[in-house]
Amino acid sequence: MMIESLQHLPRPAEPAAALAGRFTDLAPPLSARQAAIESARCLYCYDAPCTRICPSEIDVASFIRNIHEKNINGAAAGILKQNILGGSCARVCPTEILCEDACVRNHDAEGAPVKIGALQRYAVDHMRFSSHPFARAPASGKRVAVVGAGPAGLSCAHRLALLGHEVVVYEARVKAGGLNEYGIAKYKLCDDYAQKEIAFLLGVGGIEIRYGQTLGGNLQLHDLQARYDAVFLGLGLGASRRLGLTGEDAPGLLAAVDYIAALRQCDDLSTLPVPARAIVIGAGNTAIDMAVQIARLGAREVTLVYRRGFEAMTATGHEQDIAKANQVRLIAWAQPQEVMLNSAGRVAGMRFERTAMVDGCLAGNGLTFDIGADAIFKAIGQCLDDPLAPALEHAGEKIAVDAQFRTRLAGVYAGGDCVAPGQDLTVQAVQHGKLAALAIDRDIQSIAEAA
Q1: Which of 116, 128, 234, 354 makes the best surface tag, with the fewest CB within 10 Å?
Q2: Total domain count for the chain?
Q3: CATH code of residue 82
């Protein structure tokens, strides 16, 4: 990923080794003793609320009981049966608002829920299978194309392969993984974990990934429809939203996801351009990830600005606490009004207008303030970069699908962040891919039977 917009900025003052040390595991893994103690805290509830709230339907109580009984392979198999990317989800899933929030031990008297995410990671990290734990069904003779090798596409491909179909995954970039490879903070997924997880997933067989394939470019949907029995679109959200301000394309202003991608693919962090003063605009996990990482790289002042109140941020309280712990200044109720440039036409700061809720609507109140900065990172969300816009029905800015993830085009399905329903979470994308694969399988079978 190219970040030429920042090439005029200095490089970090510290050596690569020191910087790398700041991007190790945010949450260290559990030891065997810690896992034993933590798994013993689980009450193995009947109709467990943690399981009911899990987007990928993992039987949480069951896998924790297996850990408690030292059946690590059984725990891992139970997790991966429902969520083939269970290892990365254990690291990046906002468990604090999902399974751990629902845990019956999560109340004042207990003080803390069972550490479900850490236990899930422990199980997947310590599994030791003599052969791949999942066997493919007999070959169906059917072939399915999957566009996009992110969590939704990979999950779909894996489930289709298990069901006996041959799958070809078309990926625009040079690596598979999507958000897990390019968009997650480096300290959340360390040690090339995304690629190790993909290697395990591909071990089931029946899946081929072809790189450098761009839908609407060297890859056309009508060709895929003609050559395959079904097509799944796991396109993600590839286009960054614009602020709509003059100076938005000036050197020093770019999308946070572009910098995060460059950081994740960089072997020597001391070569990255780092501003002394940075502004991050946004309210989600990407905004927090950007702010924390630029601070860890050596930015002296990092300010995250959001147009509404902190309680409205999509980043959880846990994520906000991470930002505060890394000396990120958080400012609410302010919206970008003007990009300030220096005499060379480069970013020198940003002017903000104070905001408030007026009759239920967000409005500026005319009061402004300036923040000086050498770089501005926008993390205001992404939208669908859809080359198929004329062919597909849309719901808002996303692809419209029915309850079976079917688009309006026969034999074409879609899931993950590019479709209307969902929470834009990795675990949700995995679930979409899995459910879409089951729907594709049913539809293929019914067509075959009708013939």
Answers
A1: 128
A2: 3
A3: 1.10.1060.10
pTM over 0.90: yes
Residue found under tokens 């006996």: 164
Question: What residues contact residue 318 under an 8 Å CB cut-off, 6+ apart?
Answer: 94, 96
Query: In terms of domains, do 199 and 256 share one?
Result: no
**Residue 225's closest CA among 438, 404, 436, 407?**
407
Last residue of a domain, one of 339, 360, 381: 381
- Structural domain of residue 305, as residue ranges? 240-381
The answer to whether residue 88 sits within a structural domain is yes
> Which residues have C-beta within 8 Å of that of residue 218, sequence separation ≥ 6?
212
User: At 309, which CATH number?
Assistant: 3.50.50.60
Residue 17 falls within a domain, yes or no?
no
Residue 304 lies in a domain: yes
Query: How many angstroms separate the CA atoms of 239 and 246, rounded?
Result: 19
Residues 59 and 158 in one domain: no
**Residue 133: left if φ>0, alpha if ψ -120 to 50, beta else—which one?**
alpha
Residue of 201, 258, 264, 203 whose CA lies nearest to 430 = 201
Residues 6 or more apart in contact with residue 428 via CB below 8 angstroms:
55, 416, 422
In a domain, 138, yes or no: no
Based on the fold, state whether residues 108 and 231 are members of the same structural domain: no
